[in-house]
Amino acid sequence: MKKLTIIGGGPAGYAAALYANNFDLDVTIIESDVLGGTCLNRGCIPAKYWLHLAELNHEINNASDFGIQVKTSEIDWKKASTKRQDIVSKLVGGIGMLLKSKKVNVVNGWGKIKNENSVLVKKEDGSEELIQTDYILLATGSKPRELASLKYDNEFIINSDSALNWEKPPSKVCVVGAGAIGCEFASLLTDLGSTVTVVELEKEILPGFDKRTSGELRKQLTKRGVIFKMGTSIDSVKDKEIIFSDGEKETFDTVLVAIGRSPLTENIGLEDISVTTTNGYIDVNLETMQVNGKENIFAAGDIISNAPQLAHVAFAEAMCAVSYIATGVASPINYSAIPYVVYTNPELAEVGLNSDKAKLKEIEVDQAQHSFAGIGRAMIQNSNQGLVKVYAEKNGPIVGASICGPSAGEMIHELMYMVGWEALPAEAAEFIHAHPTLSEAVGESLLSLNGKGLH
Ligand SMILES: Cc1cc2nc3c(=O)[nH]c(=O)nc-3n(C[C@H](O)[C@H](O)[C@H](O)COP(=O)(O)OP(=O)(O)OC[C@H]3O[C@@H](n4cnc5c(N)ncnc54)[C@H](O)[C@@H]3O)c2cc1C
Question: Are residues 417 and 360 located together in one domain of the fold?
Answer without folding.
Answer: yes
